[in-house]
Write a structure and sequence with these properties.
heterodimer, A: alpha/beta, Rossmann fold, five-stranded parallel beta sheet, 5 strands, 20% strand, B: alpha+beta, Chemotaxis protein chec, 37% helix, globular, binds magnesium ion
């Protein structure tokens, strides 16, 4: 099973890779929403979880989320927002748009692994 | 242009908490604020500066500056990748992401104040021995932190 990280920071994707590979899963990466959809198109059947940044140039995480959740195939994949956005309004907005879970940066690798397992265990 | 004063205690406190929270969570290191006299502090030269424009009722420029050695140590502990395996681009992206996380934490603490702001994409200025100079009349915050004997400079310059 594969996990897709969409984040414009290559360092964040490397940190997430460490957590994902320690758990024995494979990581797919995209640097914004547009690239995220390109990966989804090819791999959506194998993707069990999307870890989604909010602030990204190009297509941001919120736009990606709304588009993905409007697609019959992609909407089944759970999404966890991984972001510095702590504003209550934005958290509510993303949950209303279909995000199953929310994680605020900064996080430790252990916290990330715990959240991933949580998401995979019970669909977030 | 009229430069307004800022509530130093509030904004500086938010900056210190944010830097400690982010660095300690991401690296496991303890970080201390370092106090020196202002003159000495303002001339420190660095190699990597992570920057962000912050927009709100009060617009400002935020920067976090350090040497390559400091960046390599911090990014290595953030990622679990040994410093010698890190590319320069990893250091630049790592410092920019630290800025993203720190400004995010600052923003969260300033909610419902006139200093609340929106984040913009962080970017990095790179160059041996550069330093950032703003006019002295601009309202600014300057803080130096020490992590594992390495220095990090934080600056916030209010533009209005
Ligand atoms: Mg981002």
């Amino acid at each position: 099973m594969k996990i897709l990280s969409i984040d414009d920071s290559s360092i964040v994707r490397k940190i997430i890779r460490g957590a994902v590979e320690t758990l024995g899963y494979e990581l797919l990466e995209a640097c914004d929403g547009i690239e995220g959809f390109l990966v989804l198109e090819k791999e959506y059947k194998n993707i069990g979880l999307i870890l989604l940044d909010w602030n990204m140039p190009g297509m941001n995480g919120y736009e990606f989320l709304k588009k993905a959740k409007a697609n019959n195939e992609y909407k089944k994949i759970p999404v966890m927002m991984v972001t510095t956005e702590t504003e209550e309004g934005n958290i509510v907005k993303s949950i209303q748009a279909g995000a199953e879970n929310y994680m605020i940066k900064p996080f430790t690798i252990e916290e990330m692994m715990k959240k991933i397992l949580e998401c995979l265990g019970n669909g977030c | 242009m009229l430069i307004m004063n800022i509530d130093r205690e509030l904004v500086e406190g938010a900056c210190t908490n944010a830097v400690k929270d982010v660095i300690e969570t991401m690296t496991g290191f303890n970080i201390d604020e370092h106090y020196k006299n202002d003159e000495e502090d303002h001339i420190s030269t660095v190699e990597i500066s992570g920057m962000m424009f912050i927009f709100g009722k009060r617009n400002a420029i935020f920067s976090l500056s350090m040497t390559k050695e400091s960046a390599a140590t911090i990014v290595a502990y953030m990622t679990g990748i040994p410093p010698f395996e890190l590319e320069d681009e990893d250091l630049y992206d790592g410092v920019a992401e630290l800025v993203n996380m720190i400004t995010g934490r600052i923003k969260a603490q300033l909610i419902n104040t006139e200093y609340y702001f929106d984040l913009t994409p962080p970017f990095t200025i790179v160059g041996k021995n550069h330093y950032i100079v703003h006019k002295s009349c601009v309202t600014n915050i300057f803080k130096k932190f020490i992590v594992e004997n390495l220095e990090i400079d934080l600056k916030v310059y209010y533009l209005d």
